[in-house]
């Protein structure tokens, strides 16, 4: 294939991933806005499609499908563009197809009411085995995509001996190294769940399944965040004529994320029996540790802003903020996302704080927290990046760019309104994951009601925002306004990559070290559960 | 690798802040006993109704004046549904489940536990304020999850 045809063929793979992700967020938003109204007491779910089925669909579509397909699409895109070569796309297509088949299997079971187990599928709630198999196939599909990215890293090393892998590809590959280490947990859980769901095994060790889930469940969060960081470090600086602050520190950040993302999951299980408090204290410390790469990132991003402003002859905080292209939808998405992440980060430290977590565990504060993290910095950065990618993928100018910009603003405002209300209601004790929270008019529950109403209003902003995003994404595909082919340029580091220590280049070795580290940190609580396996539980369908 | 001076200061500040927070948590854990509930007792979930003391769920008064409250959580109710205790009482809750995972949460307090079948979770709380408290299941447990709640009445002393 010649260069142009090659790029177009690669673009089709990426378009498949990105538009699957778009379909997921569109559908997920429909379920989401309904939940807001239901929690506010304005509507009730019909008996043939209950609230918890809606909630399961929303969680799975947003947390697992939208994010994963976007990140696989993004990482394939940056890899293909930063390492141009003649390549076959069979693996790229197989990855997408496998992910899609897995998603469809799981979705059919949820829609049919055979898997109303929410996106955490806690045993002994017993879903149809085909739901677990579908979810496993989705994960295996991401491994195929990971292989495609790693193969390109190996190719680069072979053809460019001694030269570091381009920074953006390094970041993408690091994200998938972390992902492989993390998903081993959910695969281990599925190995327990699937034979049990078929009835081949009578009972299950509930604590172990929950531990394996969170071994995977928290690094899942970092998978999303690494996706956003790829964009913040490598793409966003090109929107304001800036540089990546430092090649070495960026690689250090991603290596730290490989190492520190996984051994943290038990901070989701602080209120659990069967895990002694000493292990919970250890996981408080490790969870605090994973905040460090985010501190480095905060500095690097603001330093990059400031260096670009100085280059334009502007100095000072206000001049720097004003120098940024806030009316560019790609930048605005990431920029508003970063603001939300400051709130999300500090809320996260509260949740990770051992005894303090008792005040907020399983309240709607947690829901507010993850909407201002995955729903804010991550989703908004992704939507902004989609506005940057789609013209480069389709060769068409963005349809209604002013809607794109309005979309980012609506999302930012809606998310602030919704997540603040959820945080406050959570502090007053409103639970998460509950169809309606009146508790027969109990006084304490009445105090939550105004917040739930405001949260639903925020949800309407978010829903409108998604409608606009989908309109722009589909409008661009359908209209026939061709543009000149656009380069996908990635930010250049202000410090030369040559200054980066060689030890930071060894991605796969860091992956092995990360897995060993996770095993060591988890050995305590896993050993405890294995030494005291207790009573297996049969499981049941309670919906 | 060159690390900018300001960046080094910022990292020292960030890590220092984390260490400060951890020190506060350690202090709270040791001085004020603010530790998460970590019940290590096991129980056969099929035999909960026959196993003392869960065969008679409810309140027991101990000789030192404090109380123990034994609860069974099952879809979609708590047993006992209502608990009456005097103001100022120190109550240690013991909770287990006979079926799926439930939550045990009293809004307005830090009584917050996961209830896992096969395990007894436990937490202690002093009820200083009189009035009616809500006890809710705050982990999704099935189609009637929103109906799973109880009451704790703290009578004025």
Question: How would you sum up this structure in a few lines?
Answer:
The complex is a heterodimer of chains A (543) and B (157). Chain A has 543 residues and is an all-alpha fold.
Structural summary, described in words:
The complex is a heterodimer of chains A (543) and B (157). Chain A is mainly alpha-helical and 543 residues long. Chain A has 17 helices and no strands. In chain A, α5 packs antiparallel against α6, α11 (329-351) runs antiparallel to α12 and α13 runs parallel beside α16 (449-478). The N and C termini of chain A lie far apart (54 Å). The model of chain A has no long low-confidence stretch (mean pLDDT 94). Chain B folds into 2 domains: 1-35; 41-155, Cupredoxins -  blue copper proteins (Immunoglobulin-like), CATH 2.60.40. In chain B, 17% of the residues lie in helices and 38% in strands. Chain B contains 1 helix and 11 strands; from the N terminus they run αβββββββββββ. In chain B, the strands form 3 sheets. In chain B, strands 1, 2, 3, 4, 6 and 9 form a 6-stranded mixed beta sheet that branches. A 3-stranded mixed beta sheet of chain B has the order 5-11-10, with no helix packed on it. The model of chain B has no long low-confidence stretch (mean pLDDT 94).
CATH class of chain A: Mainly Alpha
Strand residues, percent of chain B: 35-45%
- Which residue ranges of chain A are poorly predicted, with pLDDT under 50 across at least 5 consecutive positions? none
From the 3D coordinates, which CATH architecture of chain A would you assign? Up-down Bundle
Structural class call of chain B reads alpha+beta
Helical amount among residues of chain B, as a percent range?
10-25%
- The chain-level mean pLDDT of chain A equals 94
Shape of chain A: globular
Order of helices and strands of chain B: HEEEEEEEEEEE
Which runs of chain B of at least 5 residues are low in confidence (pLDDT < 50)?
none
What is the CATH topology descriptor of chain A? Cytochrome C Oxidase, Chain A
Rounded radius of gyration of chain B (Å):
20 Å
CATH first level of the largest domain in chain B:
Mainly Beta
Give me the count of strands of chain A.
Answer: 0
Treating each run of at least 4 consecutive H or I residues as one helix, how many helices of chain A?
17
Count every helix of chain B, treating DSSP H or I runs of 4 or more residues as helices.
Answer: 1
């Amino acid at each position: 294939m010649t260069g142009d045809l090659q790029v177009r063929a690669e673009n089709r793979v990426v378009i498949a991933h990105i538009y699957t992700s778009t379909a997921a967020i569109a559908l997920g938003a429909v379920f989401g806005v309904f939940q807001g109204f239901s929690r506010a007491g304005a509507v009730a779910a019909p008996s043939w499609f209950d609230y918890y089925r809606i909630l399961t669909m929303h969680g799975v579509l947003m947390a697992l499908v939208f994010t994963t397909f976007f990140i696989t699409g993004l990482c394939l895109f940056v890899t293909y563009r930063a390492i141009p070569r003649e390549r076959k796309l069979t693996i790229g297509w197989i990855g997408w197809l496998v992910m899609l088949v897995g998603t469809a299997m799981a979705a059919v079971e949820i829609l049919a009411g055979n898997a109303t187990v929410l996106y955490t599928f806690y045993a002994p709630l017993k879903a149809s085995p085909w739901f677990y198999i579908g979810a496993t196939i989705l994960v295996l599909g991401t491994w195929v995509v990971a292989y495609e990215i790693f193969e390109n890293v190996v190719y680069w090393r072979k053809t460019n001996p001694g030269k570091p892998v381009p920074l953006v590809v390094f970041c993408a590959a690091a994200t998938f190294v972390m992902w492989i280490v993390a998903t081993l947990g959910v695969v281990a859980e599925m190995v327990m769940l699937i034979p049990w769901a078929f009835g081949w095994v009578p009972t299950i060790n509930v604590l172990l399944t929950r531990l394996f889930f969170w071994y995977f469940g928290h690094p899942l969060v970092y998978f999303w965040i690494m996706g956003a960081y790829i964009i913040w470090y490598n793409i966003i600086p090109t929107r304001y004529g800036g540089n990546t602050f430092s090649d070495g520190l960026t690689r250090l950040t991603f290596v730290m994320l490989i190492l520190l993302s996984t051994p943290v999951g038990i901070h989701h299980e602080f209120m659990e029996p069967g895990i002694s408090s000493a292990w919970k204290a250890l996981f408080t410390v490790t969870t605090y540790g994973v905040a460090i790469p985010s501190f480095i990132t905060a500095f690097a991003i603001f330093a990059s802003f400031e260096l670009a402003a100085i280059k334009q002859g502007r100095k000072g905080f206000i001049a720097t903020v004003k120098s940024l292209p806030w009316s560019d939808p790609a930048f605005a998405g990431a920029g508003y996302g970063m603001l939300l992440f400051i709130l999300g980060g500090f809320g996260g430290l509260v949740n990770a704080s051992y005894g303090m977590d008792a005040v907020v565990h399983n309240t709607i504060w947690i829901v507010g927290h993850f909407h201002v993290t995955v729903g804010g910095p991550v989703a908004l950065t992704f939507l902004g990046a989609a506005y940057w990618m789609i013209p480069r993928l389709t060769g068409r100018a963005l349809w209604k760019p002013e809607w794109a910009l309005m979309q980012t603003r609506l999302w930012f405002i809606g998310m602030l309104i919704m997540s603040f209300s959820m945080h406050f209601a959570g502090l007053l004790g409103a639970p998460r994951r509950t169809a309606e929270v009146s508790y027969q008019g109990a006084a304490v529950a009445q105090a939550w009601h105004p917040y739930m109403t405001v949260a639903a209003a925020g949800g309407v902003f978010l829903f409108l925002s998604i409608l606009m995003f989908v309109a722009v994404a589909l409008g661009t595909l359908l209209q026939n306004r061709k543009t000149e082919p656009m380069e996908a340029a990635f930010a250049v580091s202000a410090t030369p990559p040559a200054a980066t220590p060689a030890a930071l280049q060894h991605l796969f070795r860091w992956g092995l070290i990360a897995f060993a580290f996770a095993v060591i940190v988890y050995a305590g609580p896993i050993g405890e559960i294995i030494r005291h396996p207790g009573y297996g539980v049969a499981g049941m369908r309670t919906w | 690798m060159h690390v900018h001076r300001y960046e080094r200061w910022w990292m020292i500040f960030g890590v220092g802040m984390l260490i400060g927070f951890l020190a506060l948590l350690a202090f709270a854990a040791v001085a004020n006993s603010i530790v998460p509930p970590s019940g290590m007792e096991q129980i056969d979930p099929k035999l909960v109704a026959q196993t003392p003391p869960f065969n008679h769920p409810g309140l027991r008064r101990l000789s030192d004046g404090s109380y123990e409250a034994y609860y069974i959580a099952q879809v979609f109710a708590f047993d006992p549904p209502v608990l009456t205790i005097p103001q100022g009482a120190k109550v240690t809750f013991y909770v287990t489940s006979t079926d799926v995972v439930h939550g045990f949460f009293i809004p307005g307090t830090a009584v917050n536990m996961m209830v896992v079948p096969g395990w007894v979770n436990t937490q202690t709380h002093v009820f200083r304020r009189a009035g009616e408290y809500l006890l809710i299941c705050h982990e999704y447990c099935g189609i009637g999850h929103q109906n799973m709640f109880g009451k704790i009445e703290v009578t004025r002393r």
